[in-house]
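Fold it.
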Amino acid sequence: MGARMMYRMSIWPQVEFLNNQFASGMMHIKNSWDENIVSIPFNFDLRKGLVLSKTDIIAKPTEFKISKDQLLTKELEKLKSSTSLDYQSLNINDFSMMTVKKEGLAFTAPFDVVYGFRQIVIPFYEIRSTLNPQYFPL
């Protein structure tokens, strides 16, 4: 009789925002056959029962991208100028996962074994005009 293979998978949610209309966060998945943690952001309209894409949340995509890139660049430069090393190797394209927090939109870089998740939050007042008014203000 051969040896049995043992496979494991863990999934845990990280809820970043929740009210009676909206839920947002990340699902983190780790399994025994892959070294990396897979993280999937979610933005959910609780009233309609819909998973929202970036295009549902953002009303003016071109204007949003310009503002987002400028704001992420500015914040990343500040973080890189500090004595901490956790943001040194990142560029704005690394912040690809978008979730909603009470303070604004959060952009998160993938998990790093040494530094964990690195996140930059853009306050709503900086980008409100580019967001879908159906969902904002929350």
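The two ends are 59 Å apart (CA to CA).
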